[in-house]
Amino acid sequence: MTAPYAGDLTPHEAWDLLLTDERAVLVDVRTEGEWQTIGVPDTADAGEGRTAFIQWTDAFGRPNPAFLDELADAGVTTEDPRPVVFLCRSGVRSVAAAVTATAAGLGPAYNVLTGFEGDVGPDGRRGHQGWRAAGLPWREA
């Protein structure tokens, strides 16, 4: 049986892939509201056009029916395979996106473990894990 997607990467492994493979692209699948209020990965050091912002769901949890079309618009196609790294808030929606991309023949598709800010910690807040907590580049949207 084929795996549902290429696998999970730590935030640092994802960053290393972006730095070492000029074809790799990071796709942030959080909502527009999350991008605006929490911040976004800053992949400028990896090269221009290395990040796409494509919502997996909207703010109400409704699936994005244009997800695969928007990936194609971002240059993620079956005709020109490239590594695609999916990132969400905690690493749940990005798994679903990686599975969907793989099923559509895209990728290899990866999931970033712990996402951009990780699960809720013992203090009831996020931000103890993930891309931002790992000290990787990010910026206000």
UniProtKB/TrEMBL annotation:
Ranges for domain Rhodanese: 20-125
Transmembrane segments: none
Pfam families attached to this UniProt entry: Rhodanese
Top-level taxon: Bacteria
SUPFAM superfamilies: Rhodanese/Cell cycle control phosphatase
The name this protein goes by in its record: Rhodanese domain-containing protein
Organism, scientific name: Cellulomonas pakistanensis
